[in-house]
Amino acid sequence: xxxxxxxxxxxxxxxxxxxxxxxxxxxxxxxxxxxxxxxxxxxxxxxxxxxxxxxxxxxxxxxxxxxxxxxxxxxxxxxxxxxxxxxxxxxxxxxxxxxxxxxxxxxxxxxxxxxxxxxxxxxxxxxxxxxxxxxxxxxxxxxxxxxxxxxxxxxxxxxxxxxxxxxx
Length: 168
Hints:
- By secondary structure, the chain is an alpha+beta fold.
- The protein has a domain at 54-167.
- The chain contains 3 helices and 5 strands; from the N terminus they run αββαββαβ.
- The chain has helices at residues 30-45, 94-98, 134-154, and strands at residues 66-68, 84-90, 119-122, 128-130, 164-167.
- A 5-stranded mixed sheet has the order 1-2-5-3-4, with helices on one face.
């Protein structure tokens, strides 16, 4: 199979990406970094011809931020025995800017902040859910993934590699 013929899950046409590293001395805390990127995205979105702008910790084809996690309520196990997750943080508007089709659910919004119920988006657009508690979110995510996988099998489609995305 030719890589150029594979569907990357987003529309790469007329897409510009760039990496930004903020100097720690000028942006020592999360609040200042968030304010910088909020203002940057506001200004970029206002430019003529810009259809969308968003931020992410990793681009879809380069998402290499793996984290070993210990889900809440699970017994303590050595680090090497914990499940691995590929975690990617995104700002509101990411799916629209990347032209990632959402089959169900919704994009992250400005309301999906640290005070809001936990929200996750699994890399397959059909798997998107939320919950009032971590336990409820976990149950909903499992159900969304199970229903999606059932749909893939029913339609004879391949099961993709999984990536978890959380609001930035």
